[in-house]
Amino acid sequence: MSYEERMAQEIVAKALGREVTQWDTGKQPSMYDFDIGTTGALEVTTIVDEDTRRALVRAAKNHSIRARNLHTSWVVMMRLPQDGNKVLIVDFRELVPRIEAALAALEAQGQAEMPKWDSLSKHLFCDASCPVRTLLGYGVTSARQAPQLDAKHGKPHIELSAMHGGTVPPDVNLVVDAIEHTLAKKQDSWEKLHVPGKSEREIFFWAASTERHTHRLIQEDRQPDRGPDVEKYGLTRVWVGAIGYWDTALHWTQEHGWQRYSHSS
Ligand SMILES: [Zn+2]
C-alpha cells in the first residue's frame, strides 16, 4: 500500500467514523483500493495535469546519464521549473551538461555533496563561479556522490530525478476543473467502483501542491464555489487532499457540498 493510500484510508475512516479496509490485494486487475463499511467503495488517486505529466515523462527518460567529466557517479534531485501552475518543458540534453560541469566543480573542491537545505541559502549570494549557486539556479535541490553506482554502471553516471512543485492551480475553483479533467482521463479510476452491492462510490484525490496553493486549499480553509460534476461517473463523494499535508482533506457530496476534515481540529 502506498503512503498516499494509507493516509487517505486514515482520513476517510476518521472523517466518516466508519471502518475503511483494504480491498485491492493486487491479485486481480481493476480492484478498487478500499471498502468503506460494507456498502462503500473507495479509490485513491492523484490529480495530474497534462503538462506536468509530459514534463515528468520526459524527465524520467533521462533518468541515468553517462557523465564523462565526473570521477564518481552522483544522485541528483531537481525541481522542474514552473510558470504559475504549469510545469515548463525542460530540454535535458542542454541542462544535464551544465549540471555535470557544476558537479565536476564540486568534486574539484573535494565536496561529495551539495550542502543541505539549512546551509544552502547563503550560496544564493555567492558569485556566479560558485557551483552550488549554479546548481540552485538549475532547480537542483540535492546532489551527492554515489560511488555504489559506479559499480552498477561501470562508469560515472548522473542519476537524475525530477520533481514537480505543484499541480493545484492557485484559484481553488480550478481544483474542481482538475478533478473533472482527471476523471475524464482516468476512466479506470471510477469504472472499478461500479460493483454490485456498493451504493457509495468515492474517490480520494491527492494533489501535488506548492506551498502557496496548498495554503489556499487546505491551510486557509478556502472552498471551491461549485462541486465537481460527478453524477455521470456515479460518484457519491469526492475527496481532495494535498500531498505533504497528511491530516487534512476537503470532501464533497451533493447533499452537503464541500466540507473540511482535519485530524488536528
Ligand atoms: Zn557558494
Question: Explain this structure to me?
Answer:
The protein has nine helices and 13 strands. The mean pLDDT is 83. Helix 3 runs antiparallel to helix 5 (131-137). Strand 6 and strand 7 form a beta hairpin. The protein has 265 residues and is α+β, with helices and mostly antiparallel strands. Bound molecules: zinc ion (ZN). The site of zinc ion has 5 residues, from helix 5.
Radius of gyration over C-alpha positions, nearest whole angstrom = 22 Å
Biggest sheet: strand arrangement: 1-2-3-10-11-12-13
What is the ordering of alpha helices and beta strands? HEEEHEEEEHHHEHEHHEHEEE
Q: What's the overall average pLDDT, rounded?
A: 83
Number of domains: 2
Bound molecules: zinc ion
Q: What is the global morphology?
A: elongated
- Percent helix: 25-40%
Q: How many DSSP helices?
A: 9
User: Strand-residue fraction?
Assistant: 15-25%
Parts with pLDDT < 50 across at least 5 consecutive residues: none
Estimated structural class:
alpha+beta
Largest sheet features: 7 strands, mixed
* First-residue to last-residue Cα separation: 27 Å
Number of strands: 13
Q: Outline of this structure?
A:
This protein has helices at 3-16, 50-61, 92-108, 117-120, 131-137, 147-153, 173-185, 187-191, 211-219; strands at 20-22, 34-36, 40-46, 64-66, 74-79, 82-83, 86-87, 140-145, 157-163, 200-207, 237-242, 248-253, 257-262. The protein is α+β, with helices and mostly antiparallel strands and 265 residues long.
Features:
alpha+beta; 265 residues; single chain; elongated; four-stranded mixed beta sheet; seven-stranded mixed beta sheet; 2 domains; binds zinc ion
